[in-house]
Amino acid sequence: MAAVWRQASPSTMASRRVPKMTSKEGTSQCQEKHAVLLSPVGKLEISGCETGVHEIKLPRLSVLPNGTEAAMRCELSGSVTSMPEPLQQCAAWLNAYFCEPSRTEQLPLPPFHHPMLQQDSFTKEVLWTLLREVKFGEAISYQQLAERAGNSRAARAVGGAMRSNPIPIIIPCHRVICSSGQIGNYGGGNVMKEWLLSHEKLQKEKLAD
């Protein structure tokens, strides 16, 4: 499936509700909870605690969902009331992403509670730069993201950061593509990446009409 994505540019930067980055203190008392969101691309496994979201695990798609298989709806497996608030916020944001993308900018992003996002590192800087600056329906190259994160020679390290991203979709590593325009690799599989990019392109076009 061929698609063209608008490159993110500094002029398109806008403020976002950036989630809290929690302290590592108290990690030993962290009680991890799990939730499963049934989405148009399959089961998304969310884990986290009262402090924040730990991880989102993606299914691996072997074929692109068609219009019938990928009805734009989400269903949360289990009781919402028993979930920590960060997991509820995460599920609500993902539901909006798939079903009502225009609402994602109004919803609060959940706080994150993963060591990779708490330690000072280039990986952390790359992921937070990506979250802040590359919007729905945009794309950025590995090289461009390296430059924005402060090291123009670190395109390969950016690729490593994308592979390590513990919060995919919310931290949108699927929007990072090759300078040639090829979509590049993705932790959830290239079919998943192609679907997410095409979904955003289509939804953005609908919102522009």
TrEMBL record:
Pfam families: DNA_binding_1, Methyltransf_1N. GO terms for biological process: DNA repair; methylation. GO terms for molecular function: DNA binding; metal ion binding; methylated-DNA-[protein]-cysteine S-methyltransferase activity. Coiled coil: none annotated. It is found in: Nucleus. The keyword Mitochondrion does not apply. Keywords: DNA damage, DNA repair, DNA-binding, Metal-binding, Methyltransferase, Nucleus, Phosphoprotein, Transferase, Zinc. Residues 124-201 form the Methylated-DNA-[protein]-cysteine S-methyltransferase DNA binding domain. Its cofactor is Zn(2+). Residues 35-110 form the Methylguanine DNA methyltransferase ribonuclease-like domain. Residues 1-29 are annotated as: Disordered. Its main location: nucleus. Its EC number is 2.1.1.63. One of its GO terms (cellular component) is nucleus. It catalyses: a 6-O-methyl-2'-deoxyguanosine in DNA + L-cysteinyl-[protein] = S-methyl-L-cysteinyl-[protein] + a 2'-deoxyguanosine in DNA; a 4-O-methyl-thymidine in DNA + L-cysteinyl-[protein] = a thymidine in DNA + S-methyl-L-cysteinyl-[protein]. It comes from the Eukaryota. InterPro entries: MethylDNA_cys_MeTrfase_AS, MethylDNA_cys_MeTrfase_DNA-bd, MethylDNA_cys_MeTrfase_DNAb, MethylG_MeTrfase_N, MGMT_N_sf, WH-like_DNA-bd_sf. It is an enzyme of class 2 (transferase). Involved in the cellular defense against the biological effects of O6-methylguanine (O6-MeG) and O4-methylthymine (O4-MeT) in DNA. Repairs the methylated nucleobase in DNA by stoichiometrically transferring the methyl group to a cysteine residue in the enzyme. This is a suicide reaction: the enzyme is irreversibly inactivated. Belongs to the MGMT family. This is Methylated-DNA--protein-cysteine methyltransferase. It comes from Gallus gallus (Chicken).
